[in-house]
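During data preparation, a discrete fold description was generated, as reproduced here:
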Amino acid sequence: MKNLIPFLLFSVSVSAQTTVVLQPGACEGKDAYIVDCVPCGFTNTNFGYFDEISAISWTNSGNAADGRGLFEFDLSKIPSTASVLSASLTLYNNSNPNSGNMGGQHSQLSGPNDAFIMRVTSPWTEDAVTWGNMPSTTTMNQVYLPASTSGTQDYLDINVTSMVQSMVSDPSTNFGFMLKLATESFYRGIIFASSDHPNALLHPKLVIEYVDSSVSNCITFKPDECQGKDAYVVDCIPCGFTNTNYGYFDEFSAIAWTNSGNAATGRGLLEFNISTIPSNAVVTSANLNLYHNPNPASGNMGGQHSQLSGTNSAYLKRVTSSWDEDLVTWANMPTSTTVNQVYLQASTSGTADYLGINVMGMVQEMVANPSSNFGFMLQLETEDFYRGLLFASSDHGNSALHPSLEICYTNPLATIELITEEANGLKVFPNPSNGVVNISIIEGTVINDGKIVVYSILGDVVHEQTIDNYLQEIELKFVTGVYHIQLVTDNRTWSKKLVIN
């Protein structure tokens, strides 16, 4: 018996990982420096075109002056359905600021200059923002910057993944970042170049890696004789065909003919192992390609489609019971259904290939219920001799003629959170996490026979366990990235996005 190992002629994922590098210049960049010093006249002064974005606590003519930096990147080219795998921010020391702040070097004169990068939560304009009208911020997912190790240190690859994910998922809330000292006591500060700096290499840089799970993944299955599963079954009792297995025939055909004057009706069976596609996938297209068999080993119909007695139009049906390639015959032929069957027009020539047959309805059922994937049956619409369609099977000597199935699908995990999550129904924390995750389920939820399932960004199940408490801790030893935790009970489903860092 052939092993049903999926053979991929090629696999294309158009939702593959994408990397975007943002390092805007003065025209495209948006950043500003804001200062609180009323006696100096700075509190209501705009510094939107300064060559620095810094966090400073200093004095000016004996007056306290606290400074903070604002900067924002245009993320509009990244789809809101994207899952951000990583977002790395790089800030370069401004060694020669026009302002002369701190002599162009980070300072720890009075104590450590550690700082925070926070997400801004209200709009601001580069040419109008001041300390007096400073936008609001949130401490959620803020990033801690340790004190500088030198006066000219660059801060490379700062992990801002969680904040960027929020900005991408809801573009209307992308107001950028604020840089602020952890302790605003003079004399201390960190000083970085802004997008207005004359040296383009020093402009702030944001590198984002993401996948867009709303876009289809496409896979083509084209198995050979070792991985393929197909058979030809024939009804002709006097000929001895009815109980004969033709599991290794080089043809996949639908025929009505005669043999020594006896009626002989043939049908084809074909099954693809599509288990690599997750069962919750939404099939966006599924096309079957069948190639004419010019030289069948059986010698059927002179190697050509036939319409000698009438049209050879046919149906592709979904098989609904199991069958064994080594044992199947007409006598034990599996059942089939007319639901979502596909009509094949009569051939236009004796050697016509049938390409791009739309079998999406049947394939969606096979994907959604993997245990009921028993493949296709090819059957003439009218089984009267002499007529038939003659295609090559996966056992054909010419691999170019093997049947192929092209499936494109989307992974709906990215939209489950918007559709199925109920307020306060499922909490996942901490998030981002180092791998130890707490899952809190709303009291009163029926958790009998419930389970927690964790999916990778590509839809693969990477962890699964039953639910036995309303608060559970699970340990996920995964590589860094974005995952989806799904809670499934007997009457509802929730899903939450989880970042492992």
